[in-house]
Design brief:
Chains A, B: Residues 214-277 form the GHMP kinase C-terminal domain. The structure is a homodimer of 314-residue chains. With 314 residues, the first copy, chain A, is α+β, with helices and mostly antiparallel strands. Chain A has 10 helices and 12 strands. In chain A, strands 1, 2, 3, 4, 5, 6 and 12 form a 7-stranded mixed sheet that branches. In chain A, strands 9-10-7-11 form a 4-stranded antiparallel sheet, sandwiched between helices.
């Protein structure tokens, strides 16, 4: 029996990952977006329902990341039938947790399954990158790749696209601290210097090499020593009140390190156990309570599954 | 019975390793320096014999890398006895194959064994770095660390020193092409730009992350894609006639990639088999024959043993 409607989930993701500026991302569990895609007798792609976005997301198919992604896919297939998209946002917009990526990836997963899986999961990535071009003005993959594939994903190169899943150490946990303030991705990018000293470039290389080695060797101490971003964090962290206080407090509490998730304002903290991940979440709560700035907190293992199908209706 | 004389070997090394500029090195087999250290009744450290250097290396203990390294060690031990050093150079000077590092590391291995192993092997590294400060004007570790420990070694950071042995894939071979021309290390450093674009820094980070992942995953294709240096090679390779021709020819022959060994002029080529490593050595020979520039060629597996003791006399 032909499927009529498929619903998929795609998780929140942390891009940049400190020394992994622009090349590394990872996925978290539970938190994410759901998208349902249905067959329709009316040709064309339509966004019919959006929930959880406080009315902020567009229904125009040229602007909505779900429809942009699905259209890129259906064009590749020469599919000319009708598809209707319902988007259920679980992620806050503009939070730095890969909100637009999660929507696009969930949409692609649902549409691909609905159409009988013409693509392998990993081959959906170029369509998701196309949708990021709309959302961010640049076709980044460091959110969409981990949202799709799960785990830690290295984007070694874009032309041609070279996406490398890395090993995820057992026991690694993430705390996400989302302060209720809005940073615009392009503002956050504009504070970056256009050039860096040879010394800083070398330091960054050493740290990302150490981080990758630490992931493969499950060496938590090495991961911790390597989580140091000398390129983006110094300019971007000043945009996030409380960042320095959180950073200062987490290592004595046993966390491995922290960084700005994507272009912020969410702060991610990596910990070697769930217990410590909760401990540092309480510490972050105290920091932001003092500043009377509301935050959301999430604690999660690293999601090694990526996007998945929730429901198929026939 | 107390030892009277110990002889040690330390191998040639390739530092920088393309995208691993200033942070990565590896060791080769067979090719290297030998150093004998003997107890003497006359207090103090003396260099008594140097062979294979065409008379170019200094006997002054403040200038010879062997004596500088050993003195750093004996000072740490408060050892005030007499030591005599004989150096047998197997490596050409100024070749970019870690000549000074091999001498210093072999000297430290021999002296440490002679004195009853007061230090673990890895703890000799700071003394070797001290000797590099004399030889290169900067205390680099990307030759001495692999010369001592073998394999691929990441120098994540210098202050404090963080040296990380990486996995060596089975079947990985190296070809060294040493053209007979002299480049001065400090000249070779002076051609480097003091700053790099954010884009180049990000590309380099992606490549070193890919190279480290490729080594751990034994993924030869990923290693090959990652062997791309956008920071040092563009300025340094113009100092090495034949470099571009070698680089162009090796990939069609099945090699993984190449780069400048240390600050040159030696070119290293990595291959996925011994057969291909020999094949590309013939290719390099043709390139340099055409230019009538003499070269030395070496083909070797990656040395995973590092420095070792050859002989102990009691």
């Amino acid at each position: 029996m032909e499927k009529q409607k498929v619903t998929a989930f795609a998780p929140a993701t942390v891009a940049n990952v400190s020394c992994g500026f622009d090349i590394l991302g990872f996925a978290v569990e539970d938190l994410g977006d759901k998208v349902s895609v249905s067959l329709s007798d009316i040709p064309g792609i339509r966004v019919t329902h959006i929930e959880g976005d406080k009315g902020k997301l567009p229904y125009e198919i040229e602007k909505n990341t779900c429809s942009v992604a699905i259209r890129a896919m259906t064009e590749a297939l020469n599919f000319e039938g009708g598809l209707e998209i319902e988007l259920y946002k679980g992620l806050p917009l503009g939070s730095g947790m890969g909100s637009s990526a999660a929507s696009a990836v969930a949409a692609l997963m649902a549409a691909n399954t609905l159409l009988g899986n013409p693509f392998e999961k990993k081959d959906l990535l170029p369509f998701a990158i196309e949708s990021e071009r709309i959302a961010c003005g640049a076709g980044h993959a460091d959110n969409v790749a981990p949202a799709l594939l799960g785990g830690f994903v290295l984007i070694r190169e874009y032309h041609p696209l070279d996406v490398i899943p890395l090993h995820v150490p057992r026991g690694l946990y993430c705390t996400l601290v989302h302060p209720h303030l809005v940073l615009n991705t392009s503002d956050s990018r504009s504070v970056l210097r256009r050039s860096v000293s040879l010394q800083d470039a070398t330091t960054q290389s050493g740290n990302i090499a150490g981080l990758v080695a630490g992931l493969f060797q499950e060496d938590m101490a090495l991961i911790s020593r390597s989580l140091n971003d000398v390129i983006a964090e110094p300019s971007r962290s000043v945009l996030i009140p409380g960042y320095d206080e959180v950073k200062e407090g987490i290592k004595p509490a046993g966390a491995l390190g922290c960084g700005i998730s994507g272009s912020g304002p969410t702060i991610f903290i990596l910990s070697p156990s769930e217990e410590i991940a909760w401990e540092v979440s309480r510490l972050a709560q105290q920091v932001f309570d003092t500043m009377q700035l509301p935050i959301d907190l999430y604690v999660s293992a690293i999601n090694t599954r990526g996007a998945y199908i929730l429901e198929e209706e026939i």
